[in-house]
Design a protein that fits this description.
six-stranded mixed sheet, 25% strand, 371 residues, globular, alpha+beta, 2 domains, Deoxyribonuclease I, Chain A
């Protein structure tokens, strides 16, 4: 009888220990996700931890969801911990996934914009040949016939040939950097509408930049920003191969990655404020396009998004991911429009000419032009 009581006590202690351990795990995972949410609000130069956890938002959200299911199955009273931690995710989901919706037919006065990181024309999946990818991308643009084209990582050896690639666009500006091998790379903006003035926000110590221009569309002026912000300088393909190697330790690789991320997020923060300074100094409504190299749950996106509409959230459908690696998790290319405009449609065609997918949006003013 005494032996039975002893066994019962051990079993009870084991149950309590497991219950407490499970609750601790729930609290830690929920806290990590809660800190990740704040990455959109806290400048990484002030406090880096939220930004680092924000990069793992999707796996953290999935982990908390799995723990919620486990807690419900176990009929645990602690189910409320992952449940509450997941509620804010619903507000972030709209920037990553949209349910199917009927496209709005063409409307008079609409503007069709395309932004595309071309990957230097050498990161296509179907072909690694630069000329093949360039021809495919330019043919794609010609078929889509957008009114405004914003390209990043455009690459050319003869700058005189740029005009031949945009024969349907009478207005063209670019800012390219020359490399030691003779290549020129940078941003190109082409427009069917008149470009009145233009300029460049060149970021210190970087070949990334923001190319802006004032465009006259149906009697209205807009300042269009063609952005390529600092990348994390990480090859995911290379990382996967290294970690998959038998003699490779994961910890040094992750430390190296986080070191690069720390540098890049700090630079993106500075670059974002330089762009905002230009926007705030101009009374014209700003249309912000390009490769931000940051997710919707990021300080960069939230600062540029403030006071504007996200074309995907307003008019997209399905997954909004724009980076082909790890699709559909990574959305880093955007078109942000003034609040006084409306989105008629948004597409992210899954073309394999680059490691990015093009982003296309149809927009128009939501008020009648003044007489």
């Amino acid at each position: 009888m005494a032996q039975g009581k002893s066994f019962s006590k051990k079993k009870k202690k084991k149950f309590i220990f497991f219950h407490l351990s499970f609750r601790v795990i729930l609290l830690i995972c929920a806290a990590a996700l809660a800190i990740a949410y704040t990455s959109a609000l806290i400048n990484p130069q002030t406090f880096l931890l939220p930004t680092l956890l924000g990069l793992y938002f999707i796996p953290l959200a999935l982990l908390n969801f799995v723990l919620l299911i486990v807690a419900v199955i176990r009929k645990s009273g602690s189910f409320w911990i992952p449940f509450l931690s997941l509620i804010p995710s619903l507000f972030i989901l709209e920037f990553m996934y949209q349910p199917s919706r009927e496209p709005i037919p063409w409307e008079k006065g609409e503007i069709k914009i395309l932004t595309y990181n071309t990957g230097l024309f050498k990161s296509g999946k179907e072909s690694k040949d630069v000329d093949d990818n360039r021809e495919a991308i330019m043919n794609f643009i010609e078929n889509e016939a957008p009114d405004i084209v914003c390209l990043q990582e455009y690459s050319i050896r003869d700058t005189l040939s740029i005009r031949r690639h945009f024969k349907n666009y009478p207005h063209l500006i670019h800012h390219l950097f020359k490399h030691s091998d003779g290549r020129w790379t940078g941003n190109v903006t082409a427009s069917k509408f008149p470009i009145l003035t233009s300029g460049t926000v060149v970021f210190k110590g970087s070949t990334n930049l923001s190319l802006w221009c004032d465009i006259l569309c149906d009697g209205r002026q807009y300042r269009v920003f063609n952005n390529h912000l600092e990348s994390n300088a990480i090859s995911l393909t290379s990382l996967i191969k290294k970690i998959g190697g038998r003699n490779t330790e994961i910890k040094p690789e992750l430390e190296k990655i986080h070191g690069k991320i720390k540098t890049s997020v700090s630079r993106r923060s500075d670059q974002t404020f330089e762009i905002l300074t230009n926007i705030n100094s101009c009374k014209k409504p700003a249309i912000i396009c390009g490769d931000f190299n940051d997710m919707p749950l990021s300080y960069t996106f939230r600062q540029l998004y403030k006071g504007r509409k996200d074309s995907f959230a307003e008019g997209g459908k399905g997954f909004g991911a724009t980076y082909s690696i790890l699709w559909p998790l990574l959305r880093i290319d955007y078109i942000l429009i003034p609040e006084q405009m409306e989105v008629l449609g948004h597409e992210t065609p899954r073309k394999d000419y680059s490691d990015h997918y093009p982003v296309i949006s149809r927009i128009k003013p939501n008020d009648e032009k003044d007489d």
